[in-house]
Design a protein that fits this description.
mainly alpha, two-stranded antiparallel ribbon
């Protein structure tokens, strides 16, 4: 037991030699394994926000650890290496915990800031007295050590109590019914799409209406409701896109000012993508019975979808490939046909 403690908690030739490489390896492996979870959308102040910026937090903390800790750490033990390696993960999850509205991460961050300020003043005082610049490196190492502790506490706190719910299906106001009766059961919602009514809605009301239409389509396709996110796009032509990893449909802000038929078309198109992805997740094309009957029309379609997902390219990268991709073709055909059907029904009720 003593030897194990010494191996883990005490610096030795092996731990000192592998310290920088092990630390960076842990950061890289954690990023690859956890990126689908830790950078997902999150809810803050009742709004859904993109978690993309958390990538930069992860990288920044990782770079600081790789740069400072290896040079100034006094005990390059296995445990210290592991703690430094998971610190970026802990920092990101602590922020997600903070965004979830809990008070504990606020206290943790306050402690971290207080400690950092104390170390900073202490370092300045030593520099002024002894003029030893190397104390800056030691001070940064102490701050990063504290960050490791705070981050690991925050990581556990987030996993146990935080867990923001942006990726969980929101409660839907759509009334469930048989396929042929879904529209009849949700006429109150569909009436809001009437031309005169729709143009009078605020952007927030339109966003809620968009989400309800997505929920209606999800009910029809038999999939979990997909969350809607409104974002600013650099592209001038992109109307929206579906992110299967996060089960999110994103649309551009300008959608609020577009005609209702353009909006419905986009929402139907992107929800169809969600359906196709869920369909392909639920089917194993390596199944012997499917391979044996692969010439059946339904399986031919599935093989096309599989090829389309695996070889997907954006319109900006290769427009022809994007336009002719099987999942884009079927989504486009469905959206064009059923946008007309929706509007015909809406204008009749």
């Amino acid at each position: 037991m003593r030897k194990i403690r010494e191996l883990l908690f005490t610096e030795n030739e092996f731990s000192a030699a592998v310290f920088p490489f092990g630390m960076m390896a842990i950061m890289g492996i954690v990023w690859m394994l956890m990126k689908g979870f830790i950078f997902r959308y999150f809810i803050w102040q009742n709004e859904i926000h993109s978690g993309v910026f958390l990538n930069f937090v992860y990288v920044a903390v990782g770079v600081l650890n790789a740069w400072i800790v290896d040079d100034w750490c006094k005990n390059r033990s296995i445990i210290r290496m592991a703690a430094a390696g998971v610190t970026p993960l802990g920092a990101v999850l602590t922020l997600r915990w903070l965004f979830s509205g809990f008070i504990t991460p606020k206290l943790l961050i306050a402690v971290m800031i207080t400690y950092s300020v104390f170390i900073a003043f202490q370092t300045i005082r030593i520099i002024m007295k002894k003029k030893k610049l190397r104390v800056i490196g030691r001070a940064l190492n102490n701050i990063l050590a504290a960050l490791s502790v705070i981050s690991i506490i925050g990581m556990w706190g987030y996993c146990l109590t935080g867990m923001d719910t942006a990726d969980e299906p929101a409660a839907s106001s759509i009334k469930m019914a048989e396929d042929g009766e879904l529209w009849d059961s949700n006429q109150d919602m569909l009436r809001l799409w009437k031309e005169d009514t729709y143009t009078e809605l605020s952007d927030e009301e339109k966003k809620n209406l968009f989400q309800q239409l997505i929920d209606l389509e999800c009910a029809y396709w038999g999939i979990e409701p997909v969350e809607l996110v409104v974002e600013e796009y650099e592209s001038e032509t992109l109307m929206g896109y579906y992110v299967d990893e996060n089960h999110i449909i994103s649309i551009r802000e300008e959608m609020f000012g577009l005609p209702r038929e353009a909006v419905i078309n986009t929402l139907l198109h992107e929800t169809h993508h969600a359906y196709v992805h869920k369909l392909m997740e639920s089917v194993d094309l390596r199944d012997k019975n499917i391979e044996k009957n692969k010439n059946l029309r339904i399986y031919k379609e599935l093989y096309k979808y599989k090829e389309g997902i695996e070889n997907y390219t954006s319109a900006e990268t290769d427009y022809d490939s994007y336009y002719n991709n099987p999942i884009e073709v079927v989504a486009r055909e469905y959206a064009e046909e059923w946008t007309v059907n929706y509007l015909n029904y809406i204008d009749r009720i």
